[in-house]
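Exercise 7 asks you to align residues with tokens for two separate proteins.
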Amino acid sequence: MAMEYMLIIFEDIEMWIELTEEGYALRQIIKEEDNTYHLSCVEDCLAEGVIKKEDLAGDIISIKKTEFEYQWDELKKAYVDKWIETKRNYIIGKKIKGKFQYYYPQGYIFDINGVLGLLKDDTGMQAENLCIGDIVEGVVIGYDDINMWILISLIK
């Protein structure tokens, strides 16, 4: 899948975005004017819907994947210790309860006691029937190290 990477500078805010071929944001970094950073892997700050350059305000700069990855990896360093601890506490096969938080292009994102999980397998349950705030039971089936999410499968 060919991705596109862009940096949008609007007033004193920077938005670093990884886009799919269809124009959906998969990962995003927001740098506010006070140098506060937000990462879409740890908080709900991902652009919604298809992003069309002609609809955007500010300076739009195409960047290389390596530039985006450098920023992403540098900012993730602040969360590495928590991620290591998360993987220790949520071993594959562990049963969990999670609250459906939001939907990203990657899938359904759940809060599991302050840890984010991505639904990867909805065996036995129709995920499309989920509503924000629903509590579900699942099991850890793996890890997404890029986003620091545990991967979960729902239990009937």
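Second protein for Exercise 7:
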Amino acid sequence: MVQARKFGELIYTPETASGEAISKVETHTPKIEAPDTVKAGEPFHVKVSVGPHPNTVQHSIRRVELYFYEEGRPFNPVRIAVTELEPEYAEPELTFKVVVKKSGVLYALEYCNLHGVWEARKEVKVA
């Protein structure tokens, strides 16, 4: 019988990877590039990339998601974007134009068809 676990326990991060997953941290953890400080209500770019990583039908990044945990919001996170990627045609390097009004944390999730869901996060302050 399979032990039911909370979905969050199934998401890999550099801090929680263990066993065989440790060898996948560098190639599977999303990288978030965004300013440390932004102005409220002004657009800024967030780049999410993964890799280097294979891009074949047998082994590829199939999905990238971007969320924002907004400081003081009663229900978090806010889903900003979800992108499905087609193996061999689309590389996991995406840029999103984002607008926030309060400080918070960006979360990027990526799904590899062989190695599961991986998470990265970056704090963004509103000045």
